[in-house]
Amino acid sequence: MSKPVLRSEYQKSVANYWNTNQNDPVNLLLGHVDGYYHHHYGIGDVDWSVLEAPEAERDDRIIRELHRLEHAQANYLLDQMGEVKPEACLLDAGSGRGGTSVMAHERFGCHVDGVSISQYQVDFANGQAEKRGIQENVKYHFCNMLDTGFDEASRDVIWTNETTMYVDLNKLFTEFARLLKDGGRYVCITGCSNDIIGGRSRAVSQIDAKYICNIHPRSHYFKALAANGLVPIKVEDLTPTTIPYWELRAKSSVATGVEDPFLTAYKEGSFHYLLIVAERMVR
Question: What is the pLDDT of residue 235?
Answer without folding.
Answer: 98
